[in-house]
């Protein structure tokens, strides 16, 4: 897939290392210093061309999230300071507002997906990601990126292929999720996926996940819409990947939702039925061959 990667940083350099005194905008005068390692509360944020390859790639899809992106990036910075691992932040952006400008000013790499949709954005961002560990989450403040170290440490400690932040096993703050989603849609779609694909996930629509590069290659997601979230987990179940879940707190959204409950819910259901049907069809063909 060809893509346009945009950055206003000089090539051959790394982003600067923000400190608590200068938390919002990395100091460009420091941009030629290369990766300086982590001292105190500094961290290494790799630019598109960097002396040190990032180990962690934080991939965030954005569609007009100018009201939220700054807070989201600050939370990512807090997580990266705690993790103390060379990292990159990639925005797969389709915005027409100031989202990409704000992100670039904060040292993120911004790509412009050719296709529309949540899944298409992630596919584009994953294509750019260089890390062995990939993290994904929304740009709307619903997921708290300061919880990212908990997910990554769980992955390292348990040797899991993927760790999911579970809202349904964690805490959903007032106003964060419509009751229809919290008590009907998400539990029902989670149960449906578990039943059809013999899995035991607690929250299949959580978009806050970390996984290894190998796990991503094995899951091999392809869909472009919101059903991408289900497709990844169906792939994880199919490939028998080891998946851990950790409880997380889900917060109210800043900015307008892009999700359309019934249209996107239906896309998940249709995708699950089609996938299940094609597996059943394949089993029938195989059974027929050996009958
Ligand atoms: N690049 C790109 N990003 C998208 C697109 N659709 C959604 N996003 C982003 O994907 C993330 C998830 O979208 P949301 O609108 O938050 O969907 P959701 O999390 O299912 O719904 P809420 O619970 O209301 O937040 C957000 O960061 C969006 O900005 C798209 O077509 N292109
Ligand atoms: Mg969201």
What's the quick description here?
The protein is an alpha/beta fold and 291 residues long.
* Largest β-sheet summary: 8 strands, mixed
Beta-strand residue percentage: 15-25%
Low-pLDDT sequence parts: 1-39
Number of domains: 1
The CATH level-2 architecture is identified as Alpha-Beta Complex
The CATH homologous superfamily corresponds to: Spore Coat Polysaccharide Biosynthesis Protein SpsA, Chain A
Spell out the helices and strands N to C.
Answer: EEHEHEHEHEHEHHEH
Mean pLDDT, all residues: 86
Rg calculated over all Cα atoms: 19 Å
Q: Characterize the overall form.
A: globular
Distance linking N and C termini: 42 Å
Bound molecules: guanosine-5'-triphosphate, magnesium ion
State the strand order across the main sheet: 1-4-3-2-5-7-6-8
Summed up, the helix count is 8
CATH class: Alpha Beta
Structural class: alpha/beta
> What is the CATH T-level topology?
Spore Coat Polysaccharide Biosynthesis Protein SpsA, Chain A
> In percent, how helical is the residue content?
25-40%
Number of strands: 8
In words, what does this structure look like?
By secondary structure, this protein is α/β, with parallel strands linked by helices. It has a single domain, classed as Spore Coat Polysaccharide Biosynthesis Protein SpsA, Chain A (Alpha-Beta Complex). Helices cover 38% and strands 16% of the residues. The protein is built from eight helices and eight strands. The chain has helices at 69-83, 99-105, 118-128, 148-158, 179-197, 213-219, 228-238, 261-290; strands at residues 4-6, 56-62, 87-93, 109-112, 133-136, 162-172, 209-212, 243-250. It has an eight-stranded mixed beta sheet with strand order 1-4-3-2-5-7-6-8, with helices on both faces. Strand 2, helix 1 and strand 3 (87-93) form a beta-alpha-beta unit. Helix 6 packs across helix 7. The radius of gyration is 19 Å and the shape is globular. The N and C termini lie far apart (42 Å). It binds guanosine-5'-triphosphate and magnesium ion. Guanosine-5'-triphosphate binds next to strand 2, strand 3 and helix 3. The site of magnesium ion (MG) has 4 residues, from loops.
